[in-house]
């Protein structure tokens, strides 16, 4: 019974969001006239369906990545990071990573976040220690180096690890007024 009430509450909230969106869309597309009740009703009824489909698609995509991820195996260095990424990314994703030099920036909030959180780059561990020894202290910088290096690795290019490290160190020195 409690679960049914939660679903009804969720549908109600999503319906309100749909109603608000419908009101705004109706206002914008009908030259500022009073919103039509049919449009508001459709958005209220169909809005939650659209939201639920979007949530389902995003959740399924995220769960696909999670299922491929080996459990409790945190890399200790870049080579192990590359092996891990080779195992979880599809051939299509690897090809995108290989072709696009901006790959790391584009996946910063998805794959990059997963790496930062699942590999404890914020809290500590052997991989964080590896980067700390290089002079990298911020988890965003660590995931950036991992993803940039992975792109270069896939292309058979020199990782230019120390150039990457130096650029982050210079950034933080400048940011903190030391550079």
Task: State the secondary-structure class.
Answer: mainly alpha
- Terminal Cα span: 62 Å
DSSP helix count?
9
Largest sheet: none
Mean pLDDT: 82
Helix content range: over 70%
User: What overall form do the CA principal axes indicate?
Assistant: elongated
Domain module count: 2
What's the β-strand tally?
Answer: 0
Rg result: 23 Å
Identify low-pLDDT runs.
Answer: none
How are helices and strands ordered from N to C? HHHHHHHHH
Strand content: under 5%
Tell me briefly what this model is:
74% of the residues lie in helices and 0% in strands.
Descriptive overview:
The protein has two domains: 65 residues, no CATH class; 105 residues, no CATH class. The protein is 74% helix and 0% strand. It is built from nine helices and no strands. The relative contact order is 0.08. The mean pLDDT is 82.
Layout of strands and helices, then pairs:
Blueprint lengths: L1 H28 L7 H32 L9 H11 L2 H9 L3 H4 L4 H8 L7 H9 L4 H16 L6 H15 L4
Helix pairs in contact: 1-2, 3-8, 4-8, 6-8
């Amino acid at each position: 019974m409690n679960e049914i009430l939660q679903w009804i509450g969720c549908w109600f909230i999503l319906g309100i969001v749909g109603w608000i969106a419908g009101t705004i869309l109706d206002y914008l597309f009908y030259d500022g006239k009073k919103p039509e009740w049919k449009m508001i009703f459709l958005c209220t009824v169909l809005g939650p369906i659209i939201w639920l489909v979007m949530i389902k698609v995003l959740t399924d995509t995220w769960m696909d990545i999670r299922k491929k991820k080996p459990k409790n195996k945190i890399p200790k260095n870049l080579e192990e990071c590359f092996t891990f990424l080779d195992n979880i990314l599809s051939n299509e994703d690897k090809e995108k990573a290989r072709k696009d030099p901006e790959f790391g920036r584009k996946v910063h909030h998805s794959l990059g976040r997963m790496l930062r959180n699942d590999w404890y780059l914020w809290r500590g561990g052997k991989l964080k220690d590896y980067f700390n020894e290089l002079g990298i202290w911020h988890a965003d910088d660590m995931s950036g180096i991992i993803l940039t290096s992975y792109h270069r690795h896939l292309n058979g290019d020199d990782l230019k690890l120390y150039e990457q490290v130096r650029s982050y160190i210079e950034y933080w020195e400048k940011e903190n007024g030391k550079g």
